[in-house]
């Protein structure tokens, strides 16, 4: 973890330093090019550059009687630029002057001419420029504080040496600054990454802990990581619950198998040891028990096989067009013809004449019978079971019932099985469809304990929906939507 942390830090530091160095070098090159261009081309325009004005002033100079004279336009230019002009012959003597100050000398030696040009000999505000017109030299003095002249004397070798030293110093300073800034930036940038890596390590170790969400570019990443942690924690708990259910299921299966096996084994041993002493009535009773327990084991194994195949979608359904109304009506008649339930109160009500669906008749019959049998077996004998069929239309987000069927309309068939029996406690509602669930308010041990789970899986295999509501001591209602 620490090696990864420093690796990320070094990578960001290297990136930042490289960028800063490149930018510094490019900026230096651009600065040198700019200075070179300024030296080669005067940035001031002809209208505002005092030096250009002085050099080109000869265009306003004319000769009269072999003496230089400034025309009217030139005089206006001098006044506009707050300048004066002094003409000299080849001996350094003044031959003409315009707007010159009173203390200006009229004769110059060569040294004085150079001094006049290089330095501000008149006053601190006047800069003197030199020009030539009609074989006469002239001084142009511009009185402007913003204008100045600097004369530099330098040795090329020393200049390049100093420039190299300055560039090296500049590079060292830039690198130091880049390292400091890069370290701070890299530390700030890599700290969330290190926290993120630690979070991933926790997920790998199945420790699902939420991380604090930092502000900035990593905010979405940390939010997604926390959501992932919550999901994985939820899946882990569900898996533990499923593992526990599986263990309980296996334990229940083992227990349910052991009970009939023990009974079969005991009666078989009894018949074997006392075969000559048993009366025909006892022999018939023992063989009946063995047969009943064997049938129970067969039913249990068949139910286990069916529920597993339904859950894993490995059971091919034999679909055929069936009128659900007639189908359930026949089932109700069949139930009432059964001697065990002939005197029970089972009501059938159809609010629709015909409802065609593609179903597996055998499996759907088993599912609906399971729901009806549960209502009859787990309640008192005076319980009333009502079976009702409706058409449900979804219009405007509300369910509406109708007995007028239009074959062109899309509808759902709703099968409701309701009783007024004991009901199911609220704490047991979520477990009703679990394997081997038997409610706490029932004393019946009829069946294998897989009936409700199988019935629910059959409805889901038909792409249907099932809902169960129950109020204790008031009854239970099962709604199937096809």
From TrEMBL:
GO terms for biological process: osmosensory signaling via phosphorelay pathway. Residues 252-482 form the Histidine kinase domain. CDD domains: HATPase, HisKA. The keyword Magnesium does not apply. Pfam families: HATPase_c (PF02518), HisKA (PF00512). PROSITE patterns: HIS_KIN. It catalyses: ATP + protein L-histidine = ADP + protein N-phospho-L-histidine. InterPro entries: BphY/WalK/GraS-like, HATPase_C_sf, HATPase_dom, His_kinase_dom, HisK_dim/P_dom, HisK_dim/P_sf, Sig_transdc_His_kin-like_C. Its EC number is 2.7.13.3. Residues 218-252 form a coiled coil. Gene3D superfamilies: 1.10.287.130, Histidine kinase-like ATPase, C-terminal domain. One of its GO terms (molecular function) is phosphorelay sensor kinase activity. Keywords: ATP-binding, Coiled coil, Kinase, Membrane, Nucleotide-binding, Phosphoprotein, Transferase, Transmembrane, Transmembrane helix, Two-component regulatory system. SUPFAM superfamilies: ATPase domain of HSP90 chaperone/DNA topoisomerase II/histidine kinase (SSF55874), Homodimeric domain of signal transducing histidine kinase (SSF47384). The chain crosses the membrane at residues 12-37, 162-185. It is found in: Membrane. The keyword Membrane applies. This is histidine kinase. The lineage of its organism: Bacteria, Bacillati, Bacillota, Bacilli, Bacillales.
């Amino acid at each position: 973890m620490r090696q990864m942390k420093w690796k990320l830090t070094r990578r960001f530091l290297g990136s930042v330093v490289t960028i800063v160095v490149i930018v510094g070098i490019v900026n230096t090159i651009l600065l040198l090019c700019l200075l070179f261009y300024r030296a080669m081309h005067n940035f001031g325009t002809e209208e505002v550059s005092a030096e250009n004005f002085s050099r080109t002033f000869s265009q306003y100079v004319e000769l009269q009687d072999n003496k230089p004279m400034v025309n009217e336009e030139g005089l206006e230019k001098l006044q506009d630029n707050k300048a004066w002009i002094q003409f000299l012959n080849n001996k350094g003597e003044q031959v003409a002057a315009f707007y010159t100050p009173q203390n200006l000398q009229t004769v110059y030696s060569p040294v004085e001419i150079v001094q006049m040009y290089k330095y501000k000999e008149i006053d601190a505000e006047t800069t003197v420029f030199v020009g030539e017109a009609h074989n006469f030299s002239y001084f142009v003095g511009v009185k402007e504080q913003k204008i100045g002249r600097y004369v530099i004397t330098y040795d090329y070798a020393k200049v390049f040496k100093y420039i190299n030293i300055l560039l090296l110093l500049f590079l060292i300073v830039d690198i130091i600054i880049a390292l400091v800034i890069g370290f701070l930036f890299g530390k700030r940038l890599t700290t969330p990454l290190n926290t993120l890596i630690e979070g991933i390590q926790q997920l790998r170790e199945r420790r699902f802990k939420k991380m604090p969400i930092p502000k900035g570019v990593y905010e979405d990443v940390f939010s997604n990581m926390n959501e992932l942690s919550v999901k994985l924690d939820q899946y882990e708990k569900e898996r533990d619950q499923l593992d526990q259910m599986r263990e309980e299921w296996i334990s229940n299966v083992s227990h349910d198998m052991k009970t009939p096996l023990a009974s079969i084994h005991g009666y078989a041993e009894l018949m074997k040891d006392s075969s000559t002493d048993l009366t025909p009535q006892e022999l018939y009773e023992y063989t009946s028990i063995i047969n009943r327990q064997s049938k129970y084991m067969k039913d249990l194994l068949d139910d286990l096989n069916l529920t597993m195949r339904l859950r894993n979608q490995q059971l091919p359904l034999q679909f055929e067009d069936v009128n659900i109304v007639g189908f359930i009506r026949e089932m109700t008649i069949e139930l009432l013809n059964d001697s065990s339930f002939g005197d029970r109160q089972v009501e059938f009500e159809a609010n629709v004449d015909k409802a065609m669906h593609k179903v597996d008749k055998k499996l759907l019959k088993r599912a609906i019978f399971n729901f009806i049998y549960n209502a009859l077996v787990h309640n008192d004998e005076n319980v009333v079971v009502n079976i009702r069929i409706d058409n449900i239309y979804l219009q405007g987000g509300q369910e509406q019932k109708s007995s007028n069927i239009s074959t062109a309309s899309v509808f759902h068939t709703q099968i409701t099985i309701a009783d007024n029996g004991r009901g199911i406690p609220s704490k047991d509602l979520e477990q009703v469809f679990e394997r081997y669930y038997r409610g706490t308010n029932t004393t019946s041990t009829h069946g294998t304990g897989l009936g409700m789970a199988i019935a629910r899986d059959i409805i889901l295999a038909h792409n249907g929906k099932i809902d169960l509501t129950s109020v204790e001591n008031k009854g239970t209602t099962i709604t199937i939507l096809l």
